[in-house]
Amino acid sequence: MAERSSDFRDTLLELIEESPEPMNHPSPDQWIAYHRGELAEGEEARLQEHLVRCRDCFDLAEAAAAFAASNEKPDASQEVESAALWRLLSPQLGSSVGNVRSISAGRRGRPLWTFRLPTYLAASFFVALVGLTVWNLQQRSVIAALHAPQPNVAFVDLPSGERAAGGREQTVPAGTRMLVFSDKDLPAYWLAIREAATGKEVWSGELRPNRDSVLTLLLPEKFRPGRYRLELSDARGGKVLEMHLLRVTEGRGD
Amino acid sequence: MTVGEQTPSPVDSPRAGPEDVLRAVRDFQRGIDREKSFELLFRRFRPRIERFLASRVFSHEERLDLTQAIFLRIYQGLEGYRGEGSLEGWVLQIAFNVYRKWRDRQPGGRNASPEVSFDDPPDAPEPSVMESFPSPSTAASPFDQAVRQERLEALRQAIGELAPKQRRCVELYVYQERRVQEIATVLRISPETVKAHLFQARQRLWDKLHPLFGTIDF
After folding, report:
1. B33: buried, middle or exposed (CB in 10 Å: 19+, 13-18, 0-12)?
2. Which domain holds residue A27?
3. A28, A157, B96, B105: which could join B89 in a potential S-S bond, CB 3.0 to 4.6 Å?
4. What CATH number is given to the structural domain containing B177?
């Protein structure tokens, strides 16, 4: 295409500019008819003359050529594409044009899992983070409660010499309790707390007498209510020296 | 069957006949199964719109966007379609308007050409070049004015003596700055014929005008 200026070109442009500007623009129907060869020869020539001066009509006439051609039977890929486009278009019918989602802006509907994976990972991480934070706060409050001084902790005195399962059962309400085993002279004992009914061990551990020859064990506040058998041995798996029956009830007695 | 009666629309057929299309329009306007009626129009006109956009919009995704925008415009306006012109003319006007609006938003606007044509004819060899002629557009003296008038008249006469198709090809090529393919499309001739017309017109104009212009370059 000639882009440069020249005498010939400038004069030709001047000559065309001198001709009167067309006023009556052919309709889209006329351009379609023109491309289908349905117009009389004189009308065709008039439309072609019009094209020289009218840029918009040139563009429209060129567009009409695509419309005038008969529809060929679309191939399978075009059918698929049309169906896909219709699926995108139909939900938007009736909405305002400003609300149209651009196809070039990204996929519509469910994206591929590869695109969703980072989102899923981030969401999982976020949920885990929130869960850990809540758990951490709970643990802190529990630990803080444990570290806090506990005034007036009740004592449960378990006198020495209790032996038989048929011995006296002590009943204590739930809550923090200090179990006291008095008059102990061995350097170490092994205490096993078992469920009275099943004999299942709930807790066991080594206890050493303090300077007053007393063994102590703090039962925590949330120690489960029930009937227990406290077996004090000389060593782990050793001979049971004392046995106490303890019943922890639901209500707090503090 | 009367026009406007609700009938099973051959939506699945992309080659629905004109009667089917008109019936779909009337069903749509009466609110009878609008989506199905519109789907028939979609399948009918989508290939034409795709053909229209194919040579103008390079990006496939942008073509889909434009197609979508065009059909939404059609959907919004279809209720007001009164059948004063043909439906395809009406659709063409909407498609063209949507495209033109999009084109004018592109860098370069209406002068942006998304298509790179390899069909432009090579510059024809010129017998000689005369560089020293004053430009008529900038001439100011009485002598220059006289030269300008003489050239204008000679060109008018020479252009007028060209065959109509040759003249239109030259005018569209120079004045509208259109590509060979575009000229061929609107004049309904082949690109080779356009090239031949341009070549022959250049030769004839050279024969008649080279003493005045020195070079006939387009």
Report:
1. middle
2. 9-68
3. A28
4. 1.10.10.10
Cβ pair A227, A244 in contact under 8 A = no
Beta carbons of B68 and A92 less than 8 Å apart: yes
- Provide the chain A residues 85-114 that lie in CB contact (below 8 A) with chain B: 85-86, 88-90, 92-95, 97, 100, 102-104
Strands (E), chain A: 154-158, 169-174, 177-181, 189-195, 201-207, 215-219, 226-233, 240-252
Rounded to 5 degrees, what are φ and ψ at B109? 55, -135
Question: A73 contacts in B (CB within 8 Å)?
Answer: 14-15
pLDDT in tens, A191-212: 999 999 999 999 999 999 888 8
**Against a cut of 0.90, is the pTM above it?**
no
A205, β-bridge pairs: A191
- The answer as to whether A197 is a domain residue is yes
Supply the ipTM of this predicted assembly. Answer: 0.75
Q: Which residues pair with A154 in a beta bridge?
A: A177
Tell me the C-alpha to C-alpha distance, in Å, between residue A10 and each of A53, B151, B174, B209.
16, 11, 10, 14
The number of C-beta contacts closer than 8 angstroms across A and B is 193
Distance from CA of B172 to the nearest CA of A (A): 6
